């Protein structure tokens, strides 16, 4: 009887030992993630396995992907999607419902399979996410853009300027397009009531925008972002306007409609100006907007476009220009607009059609100062004293070119379009509110 009991105990211990052996995870780790493989059960030549991914980084893994080498054959999988197995190299992706692994979070997926030639565990793990893939695409775009612009500048400086001013506006179209335009994380930038809107353009595309309504508005302001920027990046600047009963429309420039195909984008200023007009027409069609109280607030290149469009329209009541330049830079002291300007216009129209450069405003000596001389609405000019992108002298030239009621503010602690982030914040906001309460309210 004792021998029988002893035999059962030994058998039980062996079973438990085997189970514990199967369930001990094999761990691979680097600084950003940890991968744990566990054989959950095994029978004949088949098995059930599980892989757990631990996110050790300080950012979320979005649309994660894991790769590894293994001689076993996965026949069924859950909580993940088997993209391919080529010669024992596996690529497995997230499902739509579990594509995010937050910082410090973990996720597991299971599978059934059959053993291969060798009884081994997965090796050569690699964990990436969509941002790694987007970074590769952005690098390819940067190389493409560098070659294209370099070739154009070698031909002539005027050719180079045409290419530079009409190419896609950002070095990171894929990452920014996905993170900011597609995901549209408004709540990350501001806590306010808003509506996602679409603004139809003259040539049939739709611009993604955000409208921030308020009760009993004093007026409505269109905010225009700078070159390579997005609408959301300007949104943190507008809270004080909402708090003071000014409602806001922001929209992404048309270049962002091409963020997955930046090589196909052709940035014609005429289209950008038409789009501002379409945004004005969109507001005039809303029941909650007073058509007689529409203003424009432009940042950087958005301010330059605002200067030009308001010179051509009579339905804008005020203009705020933050960080505008007195002229489009040529990036050369020798190749000034006086030297290359006419060649630039000729090449521009040869490439994009007769009249494509015609905006109703003379280009020379400066298209922006010429525009200002035609504007008959109040203009507020804002410039940071420490701006390394636009010299402070530019705001003086622009201010002196304006004939309508005008004001300016030089922010002593600020750089390029960042008055809301410096010690000048109170001065910056109060000056804008005084201007709007005087001329728009």
Walkthrough of the structure:
This protein has 441 residues and is an alpha/beta fold. It has 2 domains: 127 residues, Immunoglobulin-like, CATH 2.60.40; 286 residues, Alpha/Beta hydrolase fold, catalytic domain (Rossmann fold, 3-Layer(aba) Sandwich), CATH 3.40.50.1820. Helix content is 36%, strand content 26%. The protein has 13 helices and 19 strands. An 8-stranded mixed beta sheet has the order 12-13-15-14-16-17-18-19, with helices on both faces. A 5-stranded antiparallel beta sheet has the order 1-2-3-10-6. Strand 7 and strand 8 form a beta hairpin. Helix 2 runs antiparallel to helix 3, helix 2 crosses helix 4 and helix 8 packs across helix 9. InterPro entries: AB_hydrolase_fold, CBD2, CBM2/CBM3_carb-bd_dom_sf, CBM2_carb-bd_dom_sf, Peptidase_S9_cat. GO terms for molecular function: hydrolase activity, hydrolyzing O-glycosyl compounds; polysaccharide binding; serine-type peptidase activity. This is Cellulose-binding family II. Pfam families: CBM_2, Peptidase_S9.
Strand adjacency order, main sheet: 12-13-15-14-16-17-18-19
Structural class: alpha/beta
Shape: elongated
- Helical fraction equals 25-40%
Please tally the helical runs, counting DSSP H or I stretches of 4 or more residues. 13
Main beta sheet: 8 strands, mixed
Overall number of structural domains: 2
Distance between the termini: 100 Å
DSSP strand (E) fraction? 25-35%
Write the CATH fold name of the largest domain: Rossmann fold
């Amino acid at each position: 009887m004792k021998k029988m009991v002893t035999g059962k105990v030994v058998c039980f211990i062996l079973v438990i030992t085997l189970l514990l052996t199967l369930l001990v995870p094999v761990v691979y780790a680097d600084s950003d993630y940890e991968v744990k493989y566990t054989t959950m059960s095994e029978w004949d030549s088949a098995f059930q396995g599980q892989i757990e991914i631990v996110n050790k980084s300080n950012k979320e893994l979005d649309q994660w992907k894991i790769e590894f080498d293994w001689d076993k054959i996965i026949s069924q999988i859950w909580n993940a999607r088997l993209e391919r197995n080529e010669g024992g190299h596996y690529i497995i992706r997230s499902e739509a419902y579990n594509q995010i692994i937050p910082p410090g979070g973990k996720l597991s997926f299971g599978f059934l399979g059959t053993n291969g030639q060798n009884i081994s565990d997965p090796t050569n793990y690699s964990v990436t996410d969509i941002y790694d893939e987007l970074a590769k695409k952005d690098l390819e775009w940067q190389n493409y853009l560098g070659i294209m612009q370099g070739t154009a500048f070698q031909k002539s400086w005027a050719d180079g300027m045409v290419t530079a001013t009409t190419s896609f506006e950002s070095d990171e179209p894929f990452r920014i397009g996905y993170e900011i335009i597609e995901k549209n994380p408004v709540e990350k930038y501001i806590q306010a009531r808003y509506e996602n809107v679409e603004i139809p353009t003259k040539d049939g595309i739709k611009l993604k925008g955000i409208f921030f309504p308020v009760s009993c508005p004093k007026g409505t302001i269109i905010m225009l972002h700078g070159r390579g920027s997005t609408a959301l990046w300007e949104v943190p600047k507008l809270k004080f306007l909402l708090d003071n009963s000014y409602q806001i429309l922001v929209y992404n420039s048309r270049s962002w409609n091409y963020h997955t195909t930046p090589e196909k984008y052709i940035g014609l200023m005429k289209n950008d100006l038409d789009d501002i007009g379409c945004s004005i027409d969109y507001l005039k069609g809303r029941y909650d907007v007073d058509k007689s109280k529409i203003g424009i607030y432009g940042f950087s290149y958005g301010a330059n476009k605002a200067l030009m469009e308001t010179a051509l329209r009579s339905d804008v009541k005020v203009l705020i220009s933050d960080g505008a330049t007195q002229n489009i830079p040529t990036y050369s002291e020798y190749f000034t607009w006086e030297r290359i300007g006419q060649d630039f216009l000729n090449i521009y129209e040869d490439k994009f059609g007769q009249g494509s450069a015609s905006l109703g405003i003379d280009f020379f000596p400066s298209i922006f100062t010429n525009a200002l001389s035609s504007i008959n609405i109040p203009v507020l000019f804002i410039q940071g004293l420490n701006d390394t992108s636009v010299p402070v002298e530019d705001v003086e030239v622009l201010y002196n070119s304006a004939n309508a009621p005008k004001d300016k503010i030089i922010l002593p602690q600020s750089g390029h379009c960042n008055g809301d982030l410096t010690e000048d914040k109170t001065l910056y906001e109060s000056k804008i509110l005084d201007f709007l309460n005087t001329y728009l309210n």
